[in-house]
Write a sequence for this structure.
């Protein structure tokens, strides 16, 4: 008798048999909030899980693929997500599974060489882009996407350089709350740090720009997990949806000599965007005291309570916000 069984996600991660099942189906374990298997006795026939509102790690054993078990596991995951208050649900899966999920009323919104991202809402990304389109101008629209964890002199330097070559600079703040500094604080720092640029507009990235749906590896930099597919997926979504809505013709990035994940992302942008009419301009990082100015460097100094040194790497606007929140003495 086929049953659905939830597998607890403890410190050790998935149970060994579930990991072996994923591996046998060409999948690697990923961070998940929930994971379930369909079993027949001791045998796993299908599995799937989700992180936040993103369904992933869905697999069915070859001998059971005529039993419509994908429908059962996905229906179970959707019900569980809805019981937790999720509205729009995303699916990150292999491109070979695209039609399976399309038949389950998911809509493709981006793809990479080997993966596809789908969402349950028929107008999710369209509605998001309609709101953005009101801020496009008729001249040259440029774009920077930043996490600003926290906002540094390097972020300000990049924005000022980009703004000089644009009629309007769109700065998209990564909304995902998976960083040391919460989104509300990061957004406040970005807006305060760019207030002196009259042609810069700050937007919230939502689920569609470097999020747990489009690029989960971005938030796992210390794990060594670098996904070319995820980087391509986010770049594809940007070029298909975000850039046309804002009439963006140039994307600006800072050079990344140290961080493998950001470097992989910049490579994906250079690979995908120019073929779709979007120039990618990589600017050398600002340096101070013989080293690149980075948010990671600031976080390390704050952790070591070297507040004076940290203050030298951030604008006064950031320092005031950090001080007001008890993060900088």
């Amino acid at each position: 008798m086929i049953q659905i069984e939830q597998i607890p996600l403890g410190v050790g991660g998935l149970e060994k048999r579930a990991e072996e099942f994923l591996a046998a189906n060409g999948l690697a374990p990923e961070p998940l909030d929930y994971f379930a298997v369909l079993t027949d006795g001791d045998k796993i026939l299908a599995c799937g899980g989700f992180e936040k509102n993103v369904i992933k790690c869905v697999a069915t054993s070859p001998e059971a693929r005529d039993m419509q078990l994908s429908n059962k596991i996905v229906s179970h995951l959707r019900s569980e997500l809805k019981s937790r208050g999720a509205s729009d649900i995303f699916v990150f899966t292999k491109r070979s599974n695209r039609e399976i999920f399309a038949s389950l009323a998911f809509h493709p919104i981006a793809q990479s060489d080997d993966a596809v991202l789908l969402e349950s809402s028929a107008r999710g990304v369209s509605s998001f882009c309609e709101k953005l389109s009101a801020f496009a101008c008729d001249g040259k629209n440029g774009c920077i996407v930043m996490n600003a964890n926290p906002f540094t002199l390097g972020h300000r330097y990049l924005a000022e350089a980009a703004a000089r070559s644009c009629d309007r600079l769109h700065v998209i703040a990564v909304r995902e709350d998976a960083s040391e500094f919460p989104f509300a604080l990061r957004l406040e720092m970005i807006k305060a740090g760019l207030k002196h640029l009259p042609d810069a507009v700050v937007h919230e990235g939502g689920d569609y720009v470097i999020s747990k749906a489009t690029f989960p590896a971005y938030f796992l930099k210390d794990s060594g997990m670098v996904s070319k597919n995820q980087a391509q997926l986010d770049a594809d979504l940007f070029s298909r949806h975000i850039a046309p809505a804002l009439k963006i013709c140039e994307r600006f990035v800072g050079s990344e000599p140290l961080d493998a994940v950001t470097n992989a992302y910049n490579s994906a942008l250079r690979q995908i965007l120019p073929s779709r009419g979007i120039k990618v301009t990589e600017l050398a990082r600002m340096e101070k005291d013989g080293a690149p100015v980075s948010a990671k460097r600031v976080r390390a100094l704050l952790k070591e309570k070297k507040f004076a040194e940290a203050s030298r790497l951030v604008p006064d606007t950031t320092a005031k916000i950090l001080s007001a929140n008890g993060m900088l003495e």
Notes: The first strand starts at residue 2 and ends at 6. Confidence is low (pLDDT under 50) at residues 219-226. The first helix runs from residue 16 to 24. Residues 4 and 38 are 5 Å apart (CA to CA).
